[in-house]
Specification:
By secondary structure, the chain is an alpha/beta fold. An eight-stranded parallel β-barrel has the order 1-2-3-4-5-6-7-8, surrounded by four helices. Strand 3, helix 3 and strand 4 form a beta-alpha-beta unit. The model has no long low-confidence stretch (mean pLDDT about 95). Bound molecules: phosphoenolpyruvate (PEP). The site of phosphoenolpyruvate has 13 residues, from strand 8.
């Protein structure tokens, strides 16, 4: 199976011109390009081999209507959006996003036919208490985030992103590959242990946290890892394309 490589551009680049040229370069099969939402309409015609995603959705279950400020998954789908990140640690920390809101977003995304990428991951403080505590923390986030969709059907991506490994610019602070592989294995085992609830879902586990050309090969050896969520390196198209090449040949 080919691995999925997800490019999270965060709040970059600064101009539509740059966004279009970056998207043209990074548009490859099995790649999901996730730009800031204002660039979505323009990129709809640029991203052809890969797919488009957004960094967030609102938990609104409607295609349109009197929902001031909201962008529902069903509305965004009309602009070619196929994936959405939900519960990124930066949104949890900076926008005060709670597990309850995250659970609603996951449900409304799935109801609209958008594939949610649920981000889970422990903070440095939790990790310093040991791997067992980190696993408890991550599985708890997982449970809460998926709380409203038990027994449903669809495709869900779980991104394991240890908070302390994000945006270190690949300077050696990325999670150790075995730890990441084991956590994603734990996530999958946790979901399949309650098979009745999750049997109808296709669960994909990806790793994110300072993935770059220097470390992606090691993570790739972990059999539980089905793909990567790439932040900073996705803004450097040459590096990003090299990652895609290493991952999918
Ligand atoms: C992210 O923010 O989802 C991420 C993985 O960023 P980076 O690759 O820069 O650590």
């Amino acid at each position: 199976m080919k691995h999925l490589v997800i490019a999270n551009w965060k709040m970059n680049p600064m101009s539509l011109k740059e966004a279009i040229s970056l998207a043209k370069e990074e548009d490859k099969k099995d790649v999901v390009i996730i730009p800031p939402t204002p660039y979505i309409p323009a990129l709809q015609t640029v991203v052809k081999k890969g797919s488009l995603g957004v960094q967030d959705v609102d938990p609104i279950n409607a295609v349109n209507g009197p929902y001031t400020s909201a962008l529902s998954p069903a509305f965004l789908k009309k602009f070619g959006v196929r994936y959405t990140i939900i519960g990124h640690s930066e949104a949890r920390a900076n926008l005060g996003e709670s597990d309850a809101i995250i659970a609603h977003k996951i449900k409304s995304a799935l109801d609209a036919g958008i594939i949610p990428i649920l981000c889970v991951g422990e903070t440095k403080e939790v990790r310093d208490m040991g791997y067992t505590k980190a696993r408890e923390f991550v599985l708890d986030q997982l449970e809460r985030g998926l709380d409203l969709i038990k027994g449903g059907v669809g495709k869900i991506i779980i991104a394991y992103e240890p908070v302390w490994a994000i945006s270190t610019n690949n300077e050696g602070v990325a999670d150790d590959s075995e730890g990441a592989g084991e956590m994603i294995q734990n996530i999958k085992a946790h979901l399949s242990s309650s098979m009745k609830l999750w049997a109808q879902y296709k669960i994909i586990g990806v790793y994110g946290g300072s993935v770059g050309v220097n470390n992606v090969g090691v993570f790739l050896k972990e059999r539980s890892i089905d793909g990567f969520l790439v932040g900073s390196a996705s803004l450097r198209s040459k590096e990003f394309l090299r990652i895609v090449e290493i991952v999918n040949g």
